[in-house]
Amino acid sequence: MAAPCDGFLISAGHRGSRIPEKGSRSGISPQSPANGLPIPMRDPFTIAGQIEQLVEMLGGAAICGDCITDRLDLSVRSQANAVTRVMEGEEAFVREKGRCIDCARNKIVVRLRR
């Protein structure tokens, strides 16, 4: 269960990830300031919404599915993989081989389109 803290949601059992709370100024906006592309607004209480917020929060930095799973304390990596595959088809996101900002390994990562 996520608990609110200063406009952020902090996942129980997670090592310090801060996910913007719905309606907070830190949350994602309908348009990304980094690239100007519209960002689909998902429910921030779903796994897809939390992953979208995390990728937006990283502001263009790439993150792999394993690190998404760790940051959001998901039960299985396949949850992150399924969501990032859907995000790959959206205009605002890119899913590609690249270096993850968290683990520094070359893997399939997702990031905001630049």
Structure description:
The chain has 114 residues and is of the alpha+beta class. The protein has one domain (3-112). 27% of the residues lie in helices and 21% in strands. It is built from 3 helices and 6 strands, in the order βββαβααββ. The strands form 2 sheets. A 3-stranded antiparallel sheet has the order 1-2-3. A 3-stranded antiparallel sheet has the order 4-6-5. Helix 1 (47-57) crosses helix 3 (77-88) and helix 2 packs across helix 3 (77-88). It is globular, with a radius of gyration of 13 Å. The protein starts with a strand and ends with a strand. Mean pLDDT is 74; it is low at 1-33.
- Separation of termini? 33 Å
Largest sheet data: 3 strands, antiparallel
Instruction: Return the domain count.
Output: 1
Q: What is the β-strand count?
A: 6
Structural class: alpha+beta
Determine the strand fraction and express it as a percent band.
15-25%
Average pLDDT, all residues: 74
* Largest sheet: spatial strand order: 1-2-3
Order of helices and strands: EEEHEHHEE
The geometry reads as globular
Number of alpha- plus pi-helical segments? 3
Helicity level, as a percent range? 25-40%
Stretches where pLDDT is under 50 for at least 5 consecutive residues are: 1-33
CA radius of gyration is: 13 Å
